[in-house]
Design goal:
Layout (H helix, E strand, L loop, with lengths): L1 E6 L17 E6 L5 E5 L9 H11 L4 E3 L5 H9 L3 E4 L5 H9 L10 E2 H6 L3 H35 L2 H7 L4 H14 L4 H13 L4 H13 L5 H8 L1 H31 L1
Parallel strand pairs: 1-4, 4-5
Antiparallel strand pairs: 1-2, 2-3, 5-6
């Protein structure tokens, strides 16, 4: 059975390293014979990734137990996942703590924690914070969800199938152009474009028109054009909107064509 101990120097008289990832050495000790090997920690001088380098080194030495000072939850997870027991918050010299471990005293020392237990311990404060964040996100989404429900009702009330059929003729070119024009004029949350697009599909409007509407909705902004001009300049605003409008037509046609090819396979 082999034990790895993080250390400040390469011998049994060294103090146990205070941090697993940045300890200068790992002393690999044979529990039965007390023979040891001092291995330099490649992550000791690293600015980033020191913890993972130390984890890889310890796992490669096929040890059964790691004794160290502080060890991050991420490192503990990797080590315990590979069958290595982690004892942290340990102080003393390497030789002392190994002897205590052999006698079963180290595990009972005040302050010493088993990394396996610490890895599954639930942080109540973090749990409460997570619940609060989730609740706040739901509250922020409520206006959007309410708007979506109202939008569906309004669309169903004012847009009849006959009206839409008279506007969309079924011609790919004109329907795609009309869908892009509608998307360019409308404004609001992008989610609204999905709702309107779904309703249009339900009324039998072509996928070309719906795809162009959704793309232009999120890329072209006629309503926001004055604000865009004020912020970015007239030339940039007009060029960007023209290019976005043209691309919405091209992308819509290509998207539907690819979908039809995939369906036909």
């Amino acid at each position: 059975m082999k034990i790895a101990v993080s250390a400040d120097s390469p011998d049994l008289n060294a103090k146990v390293g205070s941090r697993f990832g940045t300890s200068k050495y790992f002393i690999i000790v044979d529990r039965d014979t007390m023979d040891f090997e001092a291995v330099a920690n490649p992550g000791a001088s690293a600015h980033q990734g020191s913890g993972i380098q130390a984890v890889v080194l310890v796992i490669s030495k096929k040890v059964d137990t790691l004794i160290t000072g502080y060890c991050s939850p991420t490192a503990i997870g990797h080590l315990t996942g590979n069958g290595i027991q982690v004892l942290e918050e340990v102080v003393g010299t390497v030789g002392e703590v190994v002897q205590m471990y052999k006698k079963g005293k180290l595990q009972r020392q005040p302050g010493v924690k088993s990394g396996l237990e610490a890895g599954v311990k639930i942080d109540k404060t973090a749990l409460v914070r997570a619940f609060k964040n989730s609740a706040n996100q739901i509250i922020r989404l409520l206006p959007v969800l309410t708007g979506v429900v109202l939008l569906i009702g309004l669309f169903s009330s004012f847009m009849s199938k006959e009206l839409l059929s008279s506007v969309f003729s079924g011609n790919i070119a004109t329907d795609t152009l009309l869908g892009a024009c509608m998307g360019s004029i409308f404004t609001g949350n992008p989610i609204n474009s999905y709702i309107i697009g779904g309703e249009l599909l339900g009324y039998g409007i072509s996928l070309f028109a719906v795809t162009a509407l959704i793309i232009s909705w999120v890329t072209v902004g006629i309503v926001q054009l004055p604000a865009e001009i004020a912020a970015l300049g007239k030339r940039f605003a007009f060029v960007r909107n023209k290019v976005s409008f043209a691309l919405s037509l091209i992308i819509a046609i290509l998207t539907v064509a690819v979908i039809n090819i995939i369906i036909g396979l």
